[in-house]
Every structure is written in structure tokens, then in C-alpha cells.
Hints:
five-stranded mixed β-sheet; four-stranded mixed β-sheet; alpha+beta; 10 helices; globular; disordered N terminus; 2 domains
Amino acid sequence: MDCxxxxxxxxxxxxxxxxxxxxxxxxxxxxxxxxxxxxxxxxSNITPLLGTVxxxxxxNHAATKVHDELHVRxxxxxxxxxxxxxxxxxxxxxxxxxxxxxxKLAHAATGLPVENMLMSAxxxxxxxxxxDVHQSKADPVYREFAIRRIADGVRLAVGNLAPARIAxxxxxxxxxxxxxxxxxxxxxxxxxxxxxxxxxxxxxxSGMSPAGTLPFxxxxxxxxxxxxxxxxxxxxxxxxxxxxxxxxxxxxxxxxGGMGAGEISADYFGAFADRIEQLLGADRQGPPLVGILSxxxxxxxxxxxxxxxxxxKPPYEQIALVAEDVAQEVLRIEKTLNYHNWLPLGVAQKDVxxxxxxxxxxxxxxxxxxxxxxxxxxxxxxxxxxxxxRETVVLSEYPPRVSAPLQVFKIGDLRVFAVPAxxxxxxxxxxxxxxxxxxxxxxxxxxxxxxxxxxxxxxxGYETWRAVSACLEVDASTKIVAGLEELARQxx
Length: 492
């Protein structure tokens, strides 16, 4: 057969294939036109009653005043196939039992799969106690109230789903993040509660020392023991006509503090939410914009530069300053964004088994019990030695391993990693190195204390001292990063 001659049969097949391609292309275009992205947002008030225990300290302190209300702030997204919900709760730490119970209630009301809900605590140290940590005991009445109100927030956000456009971006706010772990000059003693010496000191100006010494002086400081992360990521949604619906931001700063004693406050997380609503001109609109600020990889980050003298500021002044700067930077970037009519969503979740650092012997536990009973204020523990003796006794009753939930949300090219711990900044930076368009939400879906890297464990310091708030095995972060990478591949 001559290669230059095309048979009628070939011509027929060519025409049929071309017609099919045009039809398929037309269907694809039509399907794209029919895709509708939806978003919904809502808040739910979780302010505790006066007299409720305030979480975040080594002792029980009761709420005597409410400076600003606490909320669950929720954002629901729907690409037509997959729905996901963020719920960010004004609380110091929240255990998995609370989150799982809230998810179960929300699922029963909305049908949303529980694995499609990402719930996290902000880490304000002036919220009601839902979880036992140190000597701050959870209030069972408040705990049950908060479970229902968290679920209500999710239900309201899902119920508010409506056509929307979405964008995400990232700013830089370096002036308020400092690594709080410091190397000190050679020869400066740094005892830990267990009779050993640390190589770094957490918050060297705070006077937190097992020996009860005065704060370290600036001339004793050497250098920070780790990096910082200045990024302020955010997700923003608007209605098709341009009305702001919600803005969820993420910043790697532990908390700010500086409020009045016994006062309930959402810290700078709540101040940011209020300020971004004002800056976008949406605080008086109906329905109002929901501003949200989640906690990033901030386990070793505070807003204090110990190299400089610190002036004493009135309560809430520093909170307002940090919130203002983060909100202004987010607003600056938001103005440059192009919103998308549709982005694909995805979610993956798994549990990883992690070891618990339990006491090494029965003798160690019995010694700790004796220290506790010797407290002048028994059963209240006052000294650092007494407090960590109590932690030793409590951990002796823990199981050898714990199941920790990991989760990844996909929003277009963005990946959101959820970790149930106070994540060290090095871990967040490592995930961003591997996935540049991503951020970490810490204290998410549960609570397993601080999450240092193995390298930081070697240095010691408060965040590594064995306690309920720092109980995971030394290699926990390595296993968690590996688990998150596996989940990221699933949603790609």
C-alpha cells in the first residue's frame, strides 16, 4: 500500500475521533462552568462562667473578670465534591476527647465526615480549662458546654455555605517572633528539675529556674538556640459580589500575654480577629466577616527579644500591637491577590503511634511521691521540684504509647498540616521547605504537649522536661513529619 494514499476507512475514523474530541472538550468546558465553590463562616461564644478555672498555668486560678469574649471561629469550604471545616477555639489546650465529641455532634447534624473537620486551640493562656494540664484542672461543666458550642460553630458555618471566591497568600511579620530558648555564656548554671544540667534556657528573663534563682542578666546571654518563622499565611473568601466572608490566618507566635490577673481573654488571636474585620470594613456588615487566627509552629517562639531592655506596658497593650501588625500585613497582601472562582479541596488523616517518656523505675516514682507529700501546701505543689515530682507520678500511670491524629487539608496548591502538639518552629520550617505553599496548625485535633526535634531534646530546657505537657518520645517529631508527608502525597 502506498503510504501517501489514505483509505476512506481511515478518513472515517479520523472524522469520528475529531468529533468525539470536540464533544468531550465541550463537556469539560461545560462542567467547569457548572462547578460552584462555596464557603460559610460562623462564630460560637464559649466564654466560661466566672469562677471557672483558667488554663495555662502551674496552679489553679479562677476567672474573676471577662476582658473579651472567647469564641469558636469556623470556616467551611465546599468544592462541590469535598467539604472541609476549620474550627479555631479560644483555649490554651484541648484534648482529643473534647474534639472527638464535638466532631461527633457536628457529624450527626451535618453529615460532614469527622476526618474533614480540623479543630484546634489558639493557646491563649487566659481561657477556661477544658483539659487537665499541670495543676490546672478541667471544669467538667465547662468542658461539656464547650463541646456543644464547638459543634454549634461547625453546624452554623456549614449552614451558611453559599457561592464564594477564594484566595490565599503570605506576608512577613518578623518584628514579633523570637526564639525563646537561649544558650547562656559558659559557666552559667542551668539545672533541670531532675538533677541534671541543661544546655539552653527557656525565657531567660523569666526567672523560671529549679533553683529559684533570679532572672539571668543580658550579659549572661549568648545566642538563641533556634530560628524563627516570620510568615503570616492566610486564606480569604469573598462572595461573588466581593463581600468579605472570612479570613483565616496563621502565625507562629506562641501567645502574647500581658493581661490582668484572673481575666478571661482571647489574647492576640481574638484581637486580630476583631482588627481584620475592621480593616476590611466588614465588622458591621451582615452577615459579619469572620476573622480567625490559628497558632502555627510556635512551641519555642515568643514575642520577647531578651537582648533588649523591656519596658513594662499596661495590660493588653502588647496584644493590640502584635495583632495590629499582623492584621496590617495580611491586609497589604490581600489587596494584591486574585480570587479564584473554584479550587479543588482534599483531605487525608491518619493516626501514628508515639511512645510516652515514662519514669524509669518504681523507686523514682516513690521518691516523687515523697517529695509531693513533703510540700508545705500539700496537695498544692509550689516549688519546681514539687511540681515535677507531681508530673512524674501522673506520668507513671500513663500508657506506654499514645495514638496521635495527623491531618492534611488541600486547598488548590496550598497544604495545611494539622499536628496535635505545641510544634517547634524547626518542624514547621522543615515542612515549608518540602512544601513551600503550606503552613502548620498546631494544637490541632488533640493535645500531646510540646513537640521538640531530637536535636532540641539533647539541649534540654523547659519544653523537654518530662511532664504531661512534654511527654512524647524523643523521635516523635521525626515520625510525625514522615506521617504528614505520607498524607500530603495522598491529597496530591
